[in-house]
Amino acid sequence: MKKIITAVLFSTLLLLIGCSEDNSTTDVEPNDQKNEANNEEVTESESDKNDEEYETQEGEVSENEGGTFTLHSRQDQIDTINTGPIVMEIEQLNTASGELSGDLADFLESDHIEYIQMDLVVENTSDEDITFYSSQAEIATSTGEQLESDMWMSDHIEGDLMSGTKHSGSLFFILENSKAEDVESIRIKWSAPYNEDWEDVGEAVDIEISL
């Protein structure tokens, strides 16, 4: 039963930050209209383009069977992380809160949640198997909390990475003593990757991301 509720909880929270589908169609314009359109200067910022990829924008409220959720901040312009043969992308880092109802409220034994979500893609570019536990990230927030990812809500991301493989998942960190909307930056740490001889093949990662 716990696994079922956890799956529902995870899918419910993911609805908050899912990418939207592009179902638009393109009409063929007459040549004169096309030429006129080509002469118009159209500018669009990179942030606007990125916002269009998401169903929920910062500050918006989303409601589903699990409750009502508010996305407070999103950072998806994060530099690629390289440590030894490990290449890691943080696709997005979000802060959000929710008023829970039904089974989700019963499972978490609370009617309110404040949390941080981190979406990761991890790749082993080496020609040998490498161990790197990306799901064991430890964070410190600007509000003074030090947290590990919640094991029930987070995806399992394989730590023993075979040569040339890529893995992805979402990690959830539950805030205990502060509000998600007050988090302005997050420090994130990972231990160094190592090989089958237990030798470090990269450096420990220690970064800070502003929201």
Structure notes:
By secondary structure, the chain is of the alpha+beta class. It has a single domain (60-210), classed as Immunoglobulin-like (Sandwich). It has 4 helices and 12 strands; from the N terminus they run αααββββαββββββββ. Strands 1, 2, 3, 4, 5 and 10 form a 6-stranded antiparallel β-sheet that branches. The chain has a 4-stranded antiparallel β-sheet with strand order 8-7-11-12, with no helix packed on it. The longest helix is centred in the N-terminal third of the chain and has 13 residues, at 2-14. The chain is elongated, with a radius of gyration of 20 Å. The two termini are 36 Å apart. The model is unreliable at 1-5 and 19-49 (pLDDT under 50). It holds the Pfam family DUF4352.
Main sheet characteristics? 6 strands, antiparallel
Count of alpha/pi helices: 4
Instruction: Give the overall silhouette.
Output: elongated
CATH class annotation: Mainly Beta
The CATH architecture can be given as Sandwich
Helix fraction, binned, reads: 10-25%
The tally of structural domains comes to 1
Q: Separation of termini?
A: 36 Å
pLDDT < 50 stretches? 1-5, 19-49
What's the CATH topology label? Immunoglobulin-like
| Structural class by helix and strand composition | alpha+beta
Mean pLDDT across all residues, rounded?
A: 83
How many strand elements?
Answer: 12
Quaternary state reads: single chain
What series of H and E elements makes up the topology? HHHEEEEHEEEEEEEE
Radius of gyration: 20 Å
What share of residues are in beta strands?
35-45%
